[in-house]
Amino acid sequence: MPSSALVVGGGLAGIAAACDLADAGWRVTLLERRRRLGGMVASFPDPEGTVELDNGEHIAIEACRELYALFGRLGVGDRVRRQPRLSIPFLGPDGRRADLGESAWSFLSFRFLSFGDRWRVARGIGAIGRLKDAEIARLDNLTAREWLEDIGQSPEAIARFWEMFVCPALNEPCERASAALAARVLRDAMGRGPAESRFGLFTVPLGTFLGEAAARWLGERGGEGRTRECAVVAGSRGRAPDAPVGSARWIVRPPPRNARAPRRGGPGTGWRSRCGRRVGLGG
Asked: The pTM is what?
């Protein structure tokens, strides 16, 4: 009889951990307190009620290798339309347009930045690409705006260029976003060449396929995904409704502010760092 594992938190990291455990022969129960798996990766109707809007991973880029691998594993890789070459249209309030691509000329002729700001941004991208993990960790007490100003970016460059990448990736404007998170995203997306920045656009709302695909994948391997459930942890022992807790091993992957992990048993802390690496932008 396979060993049992209980994964608390059905976001991207929890789904990835559950998949790894199932492939390793564990019988996995994945719990999520929301009404669908996916955590913060979800969709909701817009105020007009005409389309579904995505929350969380609005887009993907080629640097998101683990995210693409997870989608492929769940059999939903075809729901993403991936750019063969980078092409990002920028539209101004006056109707002007500039397309940013992989060639140096597309950047040198980028009309929404002054020549001086183009030079500053180019130097900034080079510096960001050389950042080490330890250097990024030291930025955690700064906002993205403060950090970008420290590396020589003007207010106009931040508003007209950097903001367009930081805000969609982190769901926060530069003035509130963590510099450490922004630096990691920008390094992975821009600092390793334009090919890493090629966009992947979801062809259907995220909330309509990710959670269903994860639940189906786990079910086919003897596990299950349960929604509207919450694990209660008290001291070193936990309880969850109808879940195989007695002999189960725990992985806790909700947002850190909500997590009180049990102290005994299981893949536990060995999986925490791995899950954090697997999906850099998800929760």
From this structure: 0.74
